Amino acid sequence: MELTWTTSDSELKWPWLVVLLVVLVVALLAVWVRIWWRRHPPGASYVAHATRLVSLPRYRTLVQRRRLLGGFGSVAALVACVGGIVLGGRVQETQVMDRDEASRDIMLCLDASGSTAPWNVDVVQEFRDIVEGLEGERIGLTVWNNAAITKFPLTDDYDFVLDRLSEAELAFAGWSEIYPSEEFDDYTAGTWSEERQYQSSLVADGLVSCVQRFDRLDEDRGRALVLATDGEQRGRGVYNLDEAAEYAAEDGIVIHVVANPGEPDKEGDSDGLQAAADETGGTFAQLGTGGSAEDVVEEINELEAAKIERPPLVQTVDEPRTGQVLAGIGVGLLLLVWTVQGLIALAGRTNRGSTP
Amino acid sequence: MTAHLTRVKARLSIHAHRKARGLLEGEYAAIQVGRGIDFNDLREYVRGDDVKDIDWKASARTRMLLIRRYVAERKHTVVLAVSTGRSMAAMNDAQVSKRDLAVFVSGVMGYLAVRHGDLVALVYGDARRQHVRPPDNGELYLERLLGLVHDAITPEAPPSDLAAVLDYVARAIRRRTILVVVSDETSVSDQLAESLRRLTAQHEVLFLTIGDLDPTITAGAPRRLVDVDAGAEVPGWLRGDVRLQQEYAALVAGEESQLRRRLDQLGVVHERVEDTESAIAAVFRVLERQKHARRR
């Protein structure tokens, strides 16, 4: 799951320490300047007519060099001090994470019976487009007939999801009444139990099975279930549709129904499906014979728009980089100045040695 | 009370032992030729000379009338004119302060005068104030004068102004004297030259200058140096730079030669006092030169 923290605000944790340190530095500077300006340093001897030095060209060179080095050194020391003070004050950033998008689970709950296979192709195709635009949501896929199997659990690994959806699309596209393709058989294997041949398309049981695929129920997440079916049920399952809807509503799962007409000669329980969608606050879409995938997209877009509002996550973290960089630059410059001074002194000494 | 004169005498006796010379007497030339006890030379009698002065024996030997001439027995006055501004409170070299050296060299001059039976006067001062002590004799008086010079030289004193001191001499000293100027001038300003020109007409001027500690050296020098005039410390990064030392040495040498040339032009006998060791030698050198200059 991708977390994006947005930095909103930076402030000091200990502003009083900054004030204290600034006062301290200023006081030390003042004391130093006082000592520096004092007329008579203790233990000093007097010399007269030293102002004659000023007229010497070498004096001017030395003063210029000194001014340059001293200026650089002072600036460096100040920068290092400021860096230290900033570090001492502990700059902190308030980061906010918007969790709205990142906290939804969508379970695709597809009827694997032959009658809905062509519609499933459309649903899966559109779902792939949806997945490409998602960020943070988890997608899962469950197919069912008279038994439910999980094709993939809830995940935000979208590459994987897309692979699986392609696989599903290929499989559902391979269905035919007379001679279903090997991919279709393989894909739906396990959803049809021969022992219970009088039971098929157990909508309510499939729905409950899909509901049970949701995990982390203790977390406050948005949960949606896209149920694609024709509603034609043969035989009876454990749950009926009302009970299944209730079951889903208990866990706060919103059921969006994408109903398709299925086989033309049979009547699906559209009303029951609509009731289930209504009970959980979901939507119901009836795809007519002329119903296209666009309707599915619309439904799912609606689903996407139904984000739930959650308070953003707020965290405060130390942001020591500014202080570190400042202090680093200051200390580096200071070291550079000292090195240059040392080199000059060394050069002067060797010069003296060569010309005694 | 510090015994300034005791130190002078101790030094002088060492010096006298080293060089077997009649140091303490007759070291400076009398100004006037006249009648006195000390015989000077003979000259031919001219009308108007006192008959008592005729040297009869010499006249008989040379068969011409000669009269004796005597060095005037008058007491001379030695005026010590000492610049006591704050620049004199600085160091002369790493060991000796300029103040001690000024007191010492004044003491040597004064002691020679006292031993000679002459009177010693003192004029000292700075840019703001000048003082005079009238001529008097005796070691005790000289000691007091040296104490005055010693106490006047402090780092808190006003700046030095030799021309002001010399102008004060011109105003305060009326009679003809031997004027010993002790200062630390590095050059002769026009104003100073004018003062000296006026004084040389009236006095025998001996000019003694004291040098300065080189502020650029570090070896053997005090760790921290304060410019007594500017009141600011000589920064450490100025000291120990070889090229600066060379340039400073050249500057000082140039200034000194210019000072010598200028004083020569003015006809002022002068000498640089380097340290206490060579101070006595410098004093005698200046006296020697003064003698020759006068006879020329």
UniProtKB/TrEMBL annotation, chain A:
Domain called VWFA: residue spans: 103-302
TM region positions: 14-37, 68-89, 325-347
Gene3D superfamilies linked to this entry: von Willebrand factor, type A domain (3.40.50.410)
Keywords: Membrane, Transmembrane, Transmembrane helix
Name of this protein: VWFA domain-containing protein
Organism this protein belongs to: Nocardioides immobilis
